[in-house]
Amino acid sequence: TSDNLSDVCCKMSSPGPVGAHSDEDVICSLVQKSQEARNQAYCPYSNFRVGAAVLASDGAVFTGCNVENASYPAGLCAERTAISKAVSEGYTSFKAIAIASDLKDQFIFPCGVCRQFMREFGLEWNVYPTKSDGSYRQMTLKELLPHSFGPDDLSARYNH
Ligand SMILES: [Zn+2]
Fold it and tell me: How far is residue 97 from each of residues 74, 145, 158, measured CA to CA in Å?
């Protein structure tokens, strides 16, 4: 079931051989990139660092961090930064996104706005919330945002 979440821990020190990446290697690499992006976070107001790394269908990876602003609502989450970077480079098909924070005992989950932002690009791709030690969970967008509103709903209006 969607609640049957297992914790998996990346062994950052032993990446697989180059050119022979297992799925787990790919995920761990994505988690590592999200942690590197977290280190770039601009968050002088919350001091809550977040990083994200999104994996496009062809293997390209785009990273992002949260970017806060003195006008608080103008700030941007890491996930939307990463996805916007990808879209602006021509990528709209994604396999996965990993999200990192400094939380040790808790997985970092995307906020509601980011779930909607991700959902624009499909429901069947994977989200990997992580803890600071690199352990992660796997969920689909559909699990994170059930009964969602998306592009198909807008086009459906023309069928009536
Ligand atoms: Zn967000």
Answer: 23, 15, 32
Q: Which CATH superfamily hosts domain 8-159?
A: Cytidine Deaminase, domain 2 (3.40.140.10)
Surrounding ion ligand 1 within 5 Å at CB are: 77, 111, 114
pTM recorded for the entire structure: 0.88
| 52, β-bridge pairs | 64, 99
**In this predicted structure, what is the pLDDT of residue 6?**
58
Q: Of the listed 79, 89, 120, 124, which one is catalytic?
A: 79
Q: Is 28 marked as a binding-site residue?
A: no
Residue 143 annotated among the catalytic residues of the structure: no
pLDDT in tens, 82-94: 999 999 999 999 9
- For the chain, the domains span 8-159
| 14 Cα–ligand 1 center, Å | 31
Give CA–CA dist 31/50, Å, rounded: 12
> 114 among the known binding-site residues?
yes
Instruction: Establish whether 43 is an annotated binding residue.
Output: no
